[in-house]
Amino acid sequence: MSIESILVWIVLGAIAGWLAGVIVRGFGLGLLGNIAVGIVGAFLGGWLAGELGVAGAAVGGLTFASIITAMLGAVILLLLLRLVRRV
Asked: Using CA atoms, how far apart are residues 15 and 73, in angstroms rounded to an integer?
């Protein structure tokens, strides 16, 4: 994996994590936490979209579809974290 790929994943994670933090209010994890949630959410969203057969939702590069896929995965991850923290 090249430096450029790592930087794209970090930027994608930051954007997706920030958007997910805005959507799931009251559950902010800070800048690094949002990046981490965004990156894990990108993997989760990409995997879930592939399992559901959603065409064009592959996460790779900085495209609108990849940002939406990563953001949806990050939202799902934040909601799961919220459930775990309450229990």
From this structure: 12
Owning domain of residue 75: 3-86
In this structure, of 46-50, 56-60, 74-78, the range with the lowest mean pLDDT score is 56-60
- Do the beta carbons of residue 61 and residue 36 sit within 8 Å? no
Comparing C-alpha atoms, which of 53, 22, 54 is closest to residue 37?
Answer: 22
Count of Cβ atoms closer than 10 Å to residue 30 Cβ: 10
Contacts of 87 (CB under 8 A, 6+ apart): none
Q: Is the pTM of this model over 0.85?
A: no
When divided into structural domains, the chain yields a total of 1
Please report which helix (H) or strand (E) contains residue 72, including its range: helix 64-86
